[in-house]
Amino acid sequence: MIKIFIADDHQIFVESLIKLLETEESFKVIGAANDGKSLLAKISFDQPDVILMDISMPGMDGIAATKLVKEKYPHTEIIMLTMHNDKKHLDLVTDAGAKGYLIKNIKKEILIKAVHEVSAGRAYYCDEVIDGLTNGNGEIPTPKIKEEVILTSREKEVLSLILKEYTAREIADKLFIAQSTVETHRKNLIHKTGVRNTLGLVKYGVEHGF
Fold first, then answer.
1. pTM of this prediction exceeds 0.70
2. Above 50 in pLDDT, residue 94?
3. Residue 46 per-residue DSSP state
């Protein structure tokens, strides 16, 4: 059973979302809050597996709340469910620790899939976000990437597995190396390619045939 918490300041949306999620037998909605402070207070009693978080909320917004949740409850995964579809917000929430990013006009099936994927430790971005990263339509500008990048064979292996949405632990097990070594390779990849985060590595990998 996947325990889900909802953080959004639009009560009608929250109620509709609860009804939608409860149609899935493997989901259990354990609570809801209308702002970041209320969220943190409520989940202190029962930590959810996944939080569906809006970005724009009064008081403490979703980005600040995500940072605090990940500091206190690192095993709780967060999906941003928002109307914002731009690189600025995408970078901010990814850096804060969110594992998923969905636009509020998605279909039910996409939301359900996203919860399953993120609860299993894999990143998930809806098609609108991926399109912005891969087809150059201007919605999400391309990160500046160094022209000449030389990757080691091990770094190429790690990057390929990141694109396949493996977690650091899964990559470590597959390559028979320590999880800390995987994180070192990931940091080296970010430094070499000139991107800002793991999402930037995905963009780089797609553009360079990984």
1. no
2. yes
3. S
